Amino acid sequence: MKFSKTLYPRYSEKLREKIIALDTSPAVIYDKQFITETVKNLQTDLRINEKNQLFFAMKANHNTEILKIFKALGLGIDIASVQEYNLAKKIGFKRISAMNPTFTQSDFSKFDDDTLVDIDSLSQLKRFVSFQKNKTFGLRIKTVGEYCSFGISLSDHLFKYINENRLQRYFKRIHFHNSNRSLVELRKQLEIAINLIDRYPAIDTINLGGDILGFYRSGRHEFLKELFRIKADPVLSKINFIYEPGDALIKYGGMLLTSVIAIKKNADVNYAFLDSSKWISGPWHMGSPIVLNNKTLDDSFQKKYYFFGNTMFSGDTYFDDPITLPELYENDRLLFPEYGAYTLSNYRGFHMLPKPTEYMYIDGTLLKI
Ligand SMILES: Cc1ncc(COP(=O)(O)O)c(C=O)c1O
């Protein structure tokens, strides 16, 4: 994904110097100003339609200090477990959207009446309505190929169940989410929504899920035109819209500082072993690292490196292919940008290795968080 200059600001001044001076490795460093400006830029775009609401998908990052930033900026929150729900309540989020195909009756009973629960199957709906008689629900609708396990297809028996049990007035929301989205797909989903609203007029909200960067892929201008079209549409103009991105709000706002522990050469292949692990807590995609303090004076002297993490799992590699960088030495420090989302929230405790320490850059200071 190209780094959108309209959505993303510049990193804070002096951040690089502070990171170079930091004596902790590995560490994850967040830039508060960058995160704040990112949210504000997105809010500015979404303000085209006063019925748009921005939520943050907690699955991307559940660091309390990060969540407090989003709360202070007025965002709602998307949760997928009771644990995430409890944290959201503790921080004080008022608008909460909840979706997970495996929510049980006991999970549902822990959510307060204002929580927007979206259902993923007929069995889940039966579980939900069996004890929450007068509560509203949403349905996650499946619009992509059969390979996707999430969502209800339009031919599902669930709709018959809604009609036969007179649940129409409780069916208030439609939820779409899939990755690698486009505006073409958004338009298709809106067509489906218009049809459903015609059949179920109680629907007042469409949750468009995450991957908002997909909507920006054909350019910001095109997405903004789409927002104006929605606002002018006779049906959609009456509907509330929730956007609940994770990646877009925090991916670029966090970066991993890690060190080269060992360099090895086998035949013509160079290996660099780092003090962090992509397998333990790495995002699904990582861009090339920035070398912060390499000693190669001549930048034209480059080598190809395979990067490995600090576990005994042979698949703990950072990239499938070697990365070309200036020659590396032991103790060189690397900075991986794009490390704020789906990293430490995915953390697994292999070898009992600790999580990297987290820092936030606020007003010229790196604070441990
Ligand atoms: C229901 C739902 N909403 C929002 C998101 C956040 O998606 P992204 O981080 O791509 O914006 C996800 C991610 O899996 C999701 O499943």
TrEMBL record:
Protein name per UniProt: Orn/DAP/Arg decarboxylase 2 N-terminal domain-containing protein
PANTHER family listed in its UniProt record: DIAMINOPIMELATE DECARBOXYLASE, GROUP IV DECARBOXYLASE
Keyword Ion transport: no
Recorded superkingdom: Bacteria
Coiled-coil region list: none
Any matching Pfam family: Orn_Arg_deC_N
UniProt KW keywords: Pyridoxal phosphate
Cofactor entry: pyridoxal 5'-phosphate
Keyword Lipid biosynthesis: no
Domain annotation Orn/DAP/Arg decarboxylase 2 N-terminal: ranges: 35-143
